[in-house]
Design a protein that fits this description.
The protein is an alpha+beta fold. It contains 4 helices and 15 strands. Helix 2 packs antiparallel against helix 3, helix 2 packs across helix 4 and helix 3 crosses helix 4.
């Protein structure tokens, strides 16, 4: 499950300890890393709880600082001890493919106001090693989406990974999609063109819409779906006014690529 959905349900392990341990003093062991990241997450849960209970005594800044420090630590571990981090991502809310070859952890930086600003670490197996890619806001200001679910699709000797993702641009504007990855020659390929559209083969599907939700509900609702048994991608038809309708569009895998199903 994604960390941005699960922060409130994480056990209060080491909740009483709020110190920020310097990176250089941390032993490079999974248990120590896990405890350190959970401790940082619990700091976030603590301050977020104050905001939700209308106690704004510096809570907003403290919440943002706590998640910022979490991001710093996560990036550090991804670069210095990726194998250890890979073993504990699931415990702190990360996504993992069925075969364990790909992992994703997304988090909200809480620095964008009504626009939610996300960051990600994407891990994948390269031979006997684990490698991580940092997916963060770049100097061009490109928007970074959060990943929602992760699936695997095996086709003969090839395995593809399908990740659903979303963005929240303001209180009502949202974007969602699905993107296909593969691991080839020890590298992560995010340009797998396996979806047939009118404009040719694409590596992703994407749509945007307006939603009638409050800010407290906005993180708990996604519309892009993938059925691994039927090998079918489904998402709603969006009206001209930008609203979600009851009608859906489906793309089914035919053995070579995903192709739109005729209604």
């Amino acid at each position: 499950m994604r960390i941005i959905y699960q922060m409130k349900t994480i056990g209060l392990l080491c909740f009483f300890c709020y110190c920020f341990i310097p990176f250089s003093t941390l032993a490079q062991k999974p248990k120590v890393i896990e405890e350190d990241l959970l401790r940082q997450l619990n700091k976030f849960v603590y301050w977020e709880g104050k905001i939700n209970n209308y106690k704004p005594d510096g809570s907003s800044d403290s919440t943002e600082n706590a998640i910022y420090e979490f991001g710093l630590k996560l990036k550090y571990y991804a670069g210095k001890c990726p194998d250890s981090l890979s073993r504990i991502l699931g415990k702190i809310g990360g996504l993992s493919s069925d075969d364990g070859q790909m992992q994703i952890l997304s988090w909200d930086t809480y620095s964008g106001g009504t626009q939610h600003t996300f960051e990600n670490v994407i891990g994948y197996r390269s031979g006997q090693r684990t490698k991580f890619i940092l997916d963060t806001t770049n100097n061009q200001g490109d928007y970074v989406y959060a990943y929602d679910k992760l699936f695997s699709l095996k086709v003969e000797r090839k395995t593809y990974y399908l990740a659903t993702y979303y963005g929240i641009f303001d209180l009502y504007s949202r974007g969602e999609g699905i993107k296909i990855f593969s691991i080839e020659d020890g590298k992560l390929n995010d340009q797998v063109k396996l979806i047939k559209t009118k404009k040719g083969l694409r590596n992703k599907l994407y749509y945007s819409y307006n939603q009638l939700l409050t800010n407290s509900d906005i993180l708990s609702y996604t519309t892009m779906e993938y059925d691994p048994k039927l090998k079918t991608i489904t998402f709603p038809v969006i009206s001209k006014g930008g609203l979600e309708t009851d009608k859906t569009i489906s793309y089914k895998f035919n053995g070579q690529y995903f192709e739109k199903v005729k209604n």
